[in-house]
Amino acid sequence: MIKLNFYTKIVTLAVIMMIPIMLLYFYSNKITTDVLSEELGTSNINQLVFFQNQVNTNIELVSSWPNLLIHDPDILSFQDIFLEDEYLNLDAINLVKRIQTKLSLQESSSNWDSSISIYSPSLGRVVTERDAQRYEASDLNKEIRPGWQVEKVMGDEGERFVFSWYTVSPFSAERHPETANTIIKVEFDSSNIQDMLDRFKSDGRGDPFYFRKDMGVIYNRTANHELIGRLLHGLEADELKDGEKRILEVNGKQYMVSLVLSEDTGWYLIDYMPLSEIMAPIDQSNRLFYVSAGGLLLLSFLAAYMLYSQVQVPIRQLVAGFKRLAAGDYAVRMQRKGSHEFSFLADRFNQMVEQIQQLFEKVYVEKIHVREARLKQLQSQINPHFFYNCFSFMTSMAKLKKHEAVIAMSHHLSRYYRYTTRQERELVPLEEEIEFVTHYLEIQNMRMPRLSYSIDLPQRMGRLSVPPLMLQPLVENAVIHGIEQNAENGLIRVTAEFDQGCIRVHVDDNGKGMSGMDIFALEQKLHRQMDENMGCGVWNVYQRMRLRFGESAGLAFSRSVYGGLRATLYWTDPEFINVLEEDRSDQHIAG
């Protein structure tokens, strides 16, 4: 058996200790990098889906215009006019002017630059917002096809695309346009989509563009055409799929490319981000760690040689320190005694442990950042049913000519979505959150006059800083599950209080409420991972409260004094307590 001397044993021990640290760091770093890449890709896909929905909403709005206009009395009258000569009489001219006015109003209802054309086979004329002239029926019949038609044209600013949609009345005449009573065409060009791409890019989300293999590319106005061309060349090597993420290498750099397909137009919305630049800080940290670990290993060899020539007491202390470190105790530190060589070794040992501890803390902080990014994405969710119900209300009021109700609903709805979609701050004053909830309740009150509400917020508590969209999900649950399901008059009451250092915000309703067992089951679900049976709004509020204010914060439910359910947010805010103490001191001095 080979007998090792003391120096060899110390060197061997140092090497053995560095191996698990290196392996653990390598494994931890790989997990962090994979999670970050996945979360970045998922976040980018979600952002693209949200943007795609906005574009599709505008396209669907434009495509719905013919269905609205086709039943207009003036347009119905227009299709029944037959001319005995080629000139319009006075009644027909007035009818055309009324139709042009309605077309102008319809086109101005959207922020997209679009146009509407109405073809009357009986008159042989086409009416637009600005003109009424003859058209060639044979040419029109060739253009009419179902769905959106896209035509590539060259303009002063370069290549652009024109999107067209034809609606034939009656519908049965779609295959034989010459037998149609009325043909309505809506049209817009790709500059509208470019405007939205520019706004999307201005938020710092990358370099988005649209692509369709048989047509071409719709760029944003500051796009890197050369780089996009190389990326498309790599993408076309395989079949494109909706919602996929790919890693492509161009000019020695890796790019994460995300794709979302528009079912309405068949175009892919594509965005990319330089993955190598995003991962550069992590790579730099890796290099620093490996250099540090190599340096620390060399220093360990030197320390082993010095310890070999010293007394046995410092050696036993060093061995004991390494054993504690191997056991995972990164708080271990060696005490410096005297000014001899062992003191130098003690300093180096302490620095090594501190650097390792800092590296582990960095990994933990990165995980927290990824978690916060995912929670921020959940804040941007919008309830489409709420959106459709509001527009249905506005449509009904407009038909009843109740313009004040339409204006009020538009005001509250715009303030509501401005708050939800333009929220970049991590914290907002509680008074702003209360104002946002007030707009939501006003909207619900207009839809359900039997709903009444009251908000009681002490003035001094309005300065409290809270995560945005924290209170609205609780109020929304009270309306949907407490008020809408009850035919009687509904009440929502929001109150806030500050007692013995604890802040509480209550949301009460007079709905049917919940049993004690149901309340207990609901609170238990908040502590687990979100599933399909748990509403994401309530779970998201609870997780953000815990993440922002710590383990002492949370969300609780109980029976309300009004007969329904009470939801209570509670937390402590040391900064707010200090502000209150200063106010009390100022009042005492003034007294």
From TrEMBL:
It comes from the Bacteria. SMART domains: HAMP. One of its GO terms (molecular function) is protein histidine kinase activity. Residues 309-361 form the HAMP domain. The keyword Transferase applies. Keywords: Cell membrane, Kinase, Membrane, Phosphoprotein, Transferase, Transmembrane, Transmembrane helix. The keyword Flavoprotein does not apply. The chain crosses the membrane at residues 6-27, 288-308. PROSITE patterns: HAMP. Its EC number is 2.7.13.3. Gene3D superfamilies: 1.10.287.130, Histidine kinase-like ATPase, C-terminal domain (3.30.565.10), PAS domain (3.30.450.20). Coiled coil: none annotated. It is a multi-pass membrane protein. InterPro entries: Bact_2-comp_sensor_kinase, HAMP_dom, HATPase_C_sf, Sig_transdc_His_kin_internal. Pfam families: HAMP, His_kinase. It is found in: Cell membrane. PANTHER family: SENSOR HISTIDINE KINASE YPDA (PTHR34220:SF7). This is Sensor histidine kinase.
